[in-house]
Amino acid sequence: MDRRDLLRAVAALPLLRAALPDPAFAQTYPVRNITMIVPFPAGGQADLAARPVAMALERILGKPVIVDNRAGGGGGSVGNAAAARAEPDGYTLLMTLSSLAVLPEADRLFDRPVAYEVSQFMPIARVLADPTLLAVPASSPWKTAQEFVEDARRRRGQITYGSSGPYGTLHVAMEMFASSADIKLLHVPFRGAGPALTALLSGTVQAIAAAPGTLKPQVDDGKLRVLGNCGAQRIASFPDVPTFQELGYKDVEMYIWAGLFAQSSLPAPVATRLREAMAQVMMSPDVLKAFDTSGSLVAYQDAPAFSAFIAADSARLIAAVKKIGKVE
Question: Which of 95, 138, 272, 317 has the fewest other C-beta atoms within 10 Å?
Fold first, then answer.
């Protein structure tokens, strides 16, 4: 979304607010600190999105917005569930990733109690939507994705990769690629993208699929090499990295989007206040600079467009999870 689209979105929001009941309720919000749950450790895409957004929201709303990294459960399920159970008053928000829709399906796949349902959440705004990138250590023997694939075919199940947890975004991306390339890799789950990246840098695992913002500082320092892009198009921060679709893996397409959510029963005036604030946040020079520096592109969507995007993206991801089947 360009600046003109953002300005149109901001201009339209007062009309929506006027149609909603009890505007005085929104005028009193917030009166205390707001907690923004991030269901992953520091260093991953959700955390990268949350921190500049929280700082900008704090300026706009006039109350502290505290980032709470609440990892656990694999793929972010513990933090997502905590946000789902919170009081729907606008004081507990969730900055999470596309795995939000995948994890309940994984619970059902294993006949486990479902930690939460997507229907418990109200989308407020999409912040980022980056393709996942396949990265390996700069010291590795693989200079191209094809070399990686050829080696993996020779040594089935021996090349290790890290993820943010079973059925998390990074896991699904790698299994989607492995299925398309007809290779078998060894999955090593961690509690988030940050720990998985640390494991890659230390040599504990040999590959990772992660967001551009997570990888770019390490690539710039000469520690990592990016071999492939799971998006439909090349990206400005890694213009020389081909997409997997370019390389012939036509069914590989995966994005790590980050978005802000509240509870589905949040009062409409508070939801509108948050949507208005997020429209301003996503035009903030500090936020735009933070994302640009990290190599991530702003991908703002207001609630209606974000809801439609989630529905389409979730259907594709759930189909991928069912294809992956049960994994430990």
Answer: 138
